[in-house]
Each structure stands twice: as C-alpha cells, then as structure tokens.
Amino acid sequence: MEENRAKLIGAARRAFAASGFAGASMDELTAEVGLTRGALYHGFGDKKGLLAAVVAQVDGEMAARAQRAGAAAANEWEGLLAEGAAYIEMALDPEVRRIVLLDGPAFLGDPATWPSQNACLSITMEAVARLIAEGVMQPVDVEAASRLLSGAAFNAALWVAASENPQVTLPKAVAAFRLMAQGLLAKRD
C-alpha cells in the first residue's frame, strides 16, 4: 500500500510539474507506474487528494530547504529572515512554482488550511516566541507576528511565481519582506 502510494505521488509530481494539475492525465499517470485508477482513488480519494499529497511533499521539502538557509545564518533573527527569503526564492523553481504556488491555491484553496503550511507556521511561531523572549523582537502577539511573516513570504512567492519577469521581481520581493520584518525588531536606544 505504501509502495503504491509513493509510486503514485512520484508519478503525479512529475505529471503536475510538466503539465499542471488540469493537464495531467490520471490514466497516463497510473499506467506509468503500473497501477489502476482504482489504486489512485483508494489511496487518495480523487485527483485533488493526490494533488494535496504532492503539495504536502513539495511544501515539506521547501520548509526543510528554508530551515537549512536559516540555520546557516549568523543569528536567529537573521535566520528567520533567511528562511523567509529562501521560501520566496523557491518561486523560481519550476516544480515549486507550478505545483505549490499556482496549482495548489487554485485547486486546493486557501494555503492557510494546508497541513504543510500550518507545520511551517508552528516552526515560525517557535522562533518568534524565542526572539521576543530574548528581547530581539518587540513584545507582540506571537501568532499574529508569525502569521504575518509566513503570509508575507508565501504571498511574495506567489507574486514572483506569477510575475512576467520573476528574476526582476524576486529581489524586490525579498527586499520588501526584509524591510517589513524589521518593523518587528525591538527598539534599540
């Protein structure tokens, strides 16, 4: 069962990245891995369920990449900013662009309801809570600040992904994200 699930997710990931959700053929996808449509429906309910599984996988990988970028930063504040910037920069990756940023919201709805996005939010909340406790950030509601930071990074990535010239849009998005986030820093005398 798990092997079939992994095969279907892998095939769907390739198909969705190449043709988009709407253009991907479930018959071709299942035939590629030697399974039937019944296996797809049994494991995922429908094509949207399969997309949700693929989005969760890609989004999880994005979160791990962003965390690695944050871990390489000089301190936790710079790490938080590096994670956001890395997430925005992933909009240039064709697979991320198509699956998570274009098709995900179009077919799965509000990303704030995705389990993978809520996992990212939890990690951000932990970092924000520590930064507030250390006096690096102003004493602000942890959830509010975390949702705004996460939402800003996601929406900046959406902007980059939908842009006619993503290479030009990207530095603008990252610069604005960093500037906005700096408003949360504690005032230093």
TrEMBL record:
GO terms for molecular function: DNA-binding transcription factor activity; transcription cis-regulatory region binding. Keywords: DNA-binding. InterPro entries: Homeodomain-like_sf (IPR009057), HTH-type_TetR-like_transc_reg (IPR050109), HTH_TetR (IPR001647), Rv0078-like_C (IPR049484). SUPFAM superfamilies: Homeodomain-like. Pfam families: TetR_C_41, TetR_N. Residues 2-62 form the HTH tetR-type domain. The lineage of its organism: Bacteria, Pseudomonadati, Pseudomonadota, Alphaproteobacteria, Sphingomonadales. This is TetR/AcrR family transcriptional regulator. Residues 25-44 bind DNA. It comes from Sphingomonas desiccabilis.
